[in-house]
């Protein structure tokens, strides 16, 4: 991204998308990969809240192959509320329902900002 200017905004631009939150949740509690009729999990009535818990910029440093830059950190706490139905088919078939299930997922967004007078490599023809 472009360099940070003095007096300009230094806040992160975009919170995590709902799709990004659900993909991170699948890594924690997978629903796919179950065996049909033996173990099936369904999530319904999904609601996601996102809360920014940290937003800060590191001091400038030199990154190899990149040059001087600042690392911008944005940390989010995402809470997923849903109702979960688990069907187990063996050894004794039964269904478990949790109407008030919730998971908390922490997502970090990091990106670099250029520092100083940046030469984009373009000549004067552009």
Descriptive tags:
single chain, about 130 residues, mainly beta, four-stranded antiparallel sheet
Question: What does it look like?
Answer:
- There is one protein chain.
- With 126 residues, this protein is mainly beta.
- The chain has one domain.
- It is built from one helix and four strands, in the order αββββ.
- Strands 1, 2, 3 and 4 form a four-stranded antiparallel β-sheet that branches.
- A hairpin with a 3-residue loop joins strand 2 and strand 3 (67-88).
- The longest helix is centred in the N-terminal third of the chain and has 11 residues, at 18-28.
- The chain is elongated.
- It starts with 17 loop residues before the first helix and ends in a 12-residue tail after the last strand.
SSE topology:
Elements lengths: L17 H11 L10 E19 L3 E3 L3 E22 L5 E21 L12
Antiparallel strand pairs: 1-3, 2-3, 3-4
Helical content stands at under 10%
Strand content: over 45%
Total count of helical runs of at least 4 residues: 1
Sheet having the most strands: 4 strands, antiparallel
For the record, give the distance between the C-alpha atoms at the N and C termini, rounded to a whole number.
19 Å
Order of helices and strands: HEEEE
Instruction: State the shape.
Output: elongated
What would the average pLDDT be, to the nearest integer? 86
Q: Tell me the Rg in angstroms.
A: 22 Å
Count of spatially separate domains = 1
Assign the structural class, choosing from mainly alpha, mainly beta, alpha/beta, alpha+beta, or little secondary structure.
mainly beta
Q: How many strands?
A: 4
Q: Which ranges are low-confidence, i.e. pLDDT below 50, for 5 or more consecutive residues?
A: none
